[in-house]
Amino acid sequence: GDAHDLERSLAERGFCLVRGIPTAISAAEFEQHFVHKPLKGLTQGFAYREGAEVAEPISEPSLGGAPVPPELAESAAVVARYYAETVAAVKKALPNLTAAVGFNQVARSSAAPPVDPVALNAFDGNIDPPAIGGVHTDATEESGFGSATAQFLALDQGALGGHGMVDLQAHRYELYWLNLWRNVNPAQPILNDHLAILDRSSLSRDDVETHKLDFDGYQIEQLLLKSHMPHHRWTYFSEMAADEILIFPQGRGVAERDGPGEEWRFEMPDSPHPESIMHMGVHDPRHPEAGRHSQENRFCAIVRADAPAAAKLPLGPRPGPGTTPAATPAKL
Description:
Distance between the termini: 32 Å
Oligomer: single chain
Strand content: 25-35%
């Protein structure tokens, strides 16, 4: 559908599939830089200047906040090109996108050996197996939105001492902590181990529970499904090609201020459905020999919300703690 349909699907169902994103990553580059040297944890920011249709880098690539080693510079350049393509998908779904920061790149392959989740490391350079049957979110909606607010404040030139990289002139922005999922094998569509998304409109807060997980030396909070129910609506997209990107939030909300230089206020949507979207890998026994090679990236997206085409998130007070999440990035 068009941008309005994609935006509405993100808000109501919790996901959208963006098609027609041209890829400049060749099969040879995919093999060399994504399979043999996956730069997990690569961070890079992009911004759209007023009226611009092409994203401009606003930061150099880094690994865990450190400069990319010279031996990985070529891979970082290829991944940066991949990031720019991925940001184009966010722009297509959220036309008023102002800036996006990509972090925590993870490569997965059906051919990868099983791994203990506790032993996972965001910077170990290994390819992980798909999370088959493991229904989860990457964060709670509070921690996901907290990551987005932290990135927002770090980017804002008018906040935190004025050391940011983006001139945020509007007084209202929508903030998204997004997961972007893509087939990165340009030679073959995904034939098995698909990613399934649980339609958030079919999920109530009573259906989920908070779980603490030790990951990469940190303890994170995520949501798990208590049990499968007949009313839960699952969706997957068969034969996803390299020019298609699945987008789903792990937290979202609004940043608002009264005027230039004023303090930002952060608020999450008032909704009976969780804002962190449940997902899992699903194996199709009809195609036992087939698999997938995928890439998932988490992005903080900042969308100007005072323009006419911007989506309007339904906001209101939420019961209990977490109405204004602490601006602390989730460690994933």
